[in-house]
Amino acid sequence: MPNSPSDEATDDAYGALYDLAVIGAGCAGLAGAVAAAERGLSVALLDASGQLGGQFYRHPAPARGAVRPQALHHDWPVFDRLRRRLAASDVVHLAGHHVWTVARAGEEEWAVHAVTGADGTGERPARVRARTVLLATGAYERHLPFPGWTLPGVVGAGGAQAMLKSGLVLPGRRVVVAGSGPLLLAVAASLSAAGARVPAVVEASGYAGYVRRPGVLVTNPHNLREAVVHGAGLVRRGVRLRTRSAVTQVHGTDRVEAVTVSRIDRDWRPLPGTGRRMACDVLAVGHGLVPQVELATSLGCATRRTQDGTYALALDASQETSVRGLWAAGETGGIGGAELARAEGELAGIAVAARARDRSDLARDRRVRELRRRRDRLRAFADTMAAVHAPGPGWAGWLDDATDVCRCEEVSAGAVREALADYGARDARTVKLLTRAGMGWCQGRVCAPAVACLAAGAGGDSAPASPERRPLAVPVPLGVLGSLEPGEPVALPTDSSVRPHAAGPNGPGQPVS
Fold it and tell me: What is the largest CA-CA distance in the chain?
C-alpha cells in the first residue's frame, strides 16, 4: 500500500483552498484527517516523514523488505484500519513537508509554510492554504544532563526504540534503560525481545503514586494490562527493575563502557554511598516527553502547565485552541499516549466538520459524547502519569561543573553557575544571553529544563517560566525566506490578528502565555 494515498490525486496540491490542513500524520493527525474527510471536508495532511504513522507507528521503509513490521507494535491493526480509511478518502497527503510556521492569510484563511525533503532542505518551499488547521505535531524527548551524557553510546530512550522500529537495528548489545516514565518499560521490552541484553531498567520515580489513585486504574484497564504485559516480559528475560534510582554518571573514553547507578530520594537527590557501577555499551535514557507547541505559541495560543512541569496547549471541549479556527490533538494538549491521541484527533475532525456546516449541536452527537468520555478518562490517567513521573528538583545535584548542559554550544554547568554567581543573571533568559546556552541548533529544546533549574537555584523549578514563542518552528534555509513574495504572511503581524474565544468546560478561555 502506498504511503501517500493521494499523491497522484491532484497536480495542484498547493493551489487549492482546503477546508482543513492537518499538521502531523501520527495517531492524532491520521484520526482527525480521516474523520473530517469522511464528513465531506477537503483535507491536506502534511508530515515531515515520508511515511504515515508518526513516532508511535514508526516502521521500516518498504525498501528494507520487512516481512512483519507489525511485530514491534501491540496494536498495529488500529493503525492499519486508519491507513486503509485514509487510502479510501480524498485526503491529499503531503509527505516530507517540514512546517516551519502558520500564519493568518485572511479573515477566514490560514497559510501553512513548509520546506520539502527528507531533512527539510529539499528542492523548494511549499505553502498550503486552508480555512482551518489541526495541529497534531506530537512531542519530543526530555533529556536531563549528567556527567558523561555526551559520550557516544548515550541515546534517547525513544531514539533507541526508533532505531529498532524503522531501522531494524539495535543500538548496542548490552543496553541499560534509564530515566523516568512508562516509555522505559516499553523500550526495554522491545530491545530485550529483539535480542539485546538489558541488565536493568533504572526508574527515577516509584510506582506508588498509581496505587494511591485506584479509581484511575480501574477506569483504564488497558493501560494497566499493557504495563503488566511489559513487566512480565522483562521478568521472563531477567531484566531488573530498579526504582528510586538514576544513572548519575557515564564512564568511558571513546564511548560508553559503564554507568553509575545511584539511589535517589523523593526529590531526586543522590544518596551518598549508594552508587554502583554497571557495565554496558549503550545507555538509552529519557525523562518523559515534552509537547511540541511551537507552531501554536507563535500564534498566541493559550497554554497550561502540566503536572510534570512542561507546557501543553489549553483546549476547549472540542479540541479547539484559544485562537479560533486552530484545533489541536494528541501530545500537543498533554502527553497521554496513542489511544488518547486517536480519540482527540477524531473529536477534532468531527468538530471542524460541524463548524464548517454551521452545526452547533455536537453535544447531541452520540459519537462525540462517546469520544469525550473516552478522552476525559484517558486524560485523567495521563495526568496521574505526569504527576507520578515528574522530575524532582534535586536532579541538578548530579551535575559537576564540567558537565555540558548545552551540547550545541558546549556550555558547562560551571559556566551557567558562574553567570548566576558572578555576572548577575537571575533567570534562564539572562543566562542564555551571557553564555549562549540554548542558542545552538536545537534552540534550547534539549537544555532549557536544565538551564531553568540551575537559574532557579536550590529547590528551584525544572521548567522555564513559560514556553518561548518562536517565529520559526524548525530550521529554515535563508533561501526559502528569500523566495517568499513581498507581503506574503509568515507570522501574525499584530495581536489584533489573534481572536481568543471562550473555551469550553475543559479549558481556560484567555491566553496565559
Answer: 67
Please report where in the chains the cell 526508533 appears, as a residue. Answer: 162
Give residues with Cβ within 8 angstroms of 246, minimum separation 6.
146, 178, 202, 204, 261, 262, 264, 268, 270, 395, 398
Show the cell assigned to 301: 495560543
pLDDT at 306 > cutoff 50: yes
Residue 447 has pLDDT above 70, yes or no: yes
Helix, strand, coil share of the chain (percent; to 5): 35, 20, 45
Cα distances (angstroms) measured from residue 452 to each of 270, 423, 431, 435? 20, 16, 9, 13
Report how far residue 456's alpha carbon sits from residue 180's, in angstroms, rounded to the nearest whole number: 22
Q: Rg for the chain (alpha carbons), in Å?
A: 23
Cell of 339: 489511544
Please, which residues have CB within 8 angstroms of residue 509's CB and are 6 or more apart in sequence?
A: 302, 316, 322, 500, 501, 502, 503
Query: What is the pLDDT of the chain when averaged over all its residues?
Result: 86
Cell triple for 76: 498495529
Determine if the pTM surpasses 0.85.
Answer: yes
* DSSP code string of 430-462: HHHHHH-TT-STTTTTTTHHHHHHHHH-TT--S
Residues 6+ apart with CB under 8 A from 326: 102, 110, 132, 133, 135, 296, 299, 301, 320
Asked whether the CA dihedral 18, 20, 21, 24 is positive or negative, the reply is negative
Query: Which segments of 293-334 does DSSP mark as H helices, in order?
Result: 294-297
Greater model confidence, 368 or 57: 368
Q: Which are the contacts of 511, defined by CB distance < 8 A and separation ≥ 6?
A: 300, 301, 302, 322, 498, 500
Length of the chain: 513
Give the pLDDT confidence of 9-57 residue by residue, as tens digits: 445 789 899 999 999 999 999 999 999 999 999 999 999 998 898 888 8
Distance between CA atoms of residues 174 and 236, nearest Å: 17
pLDDT band at 8 (very low <50, low <70, confident <90, very high): very low
What confidence score (pLDDT) does residue 1 get?
33
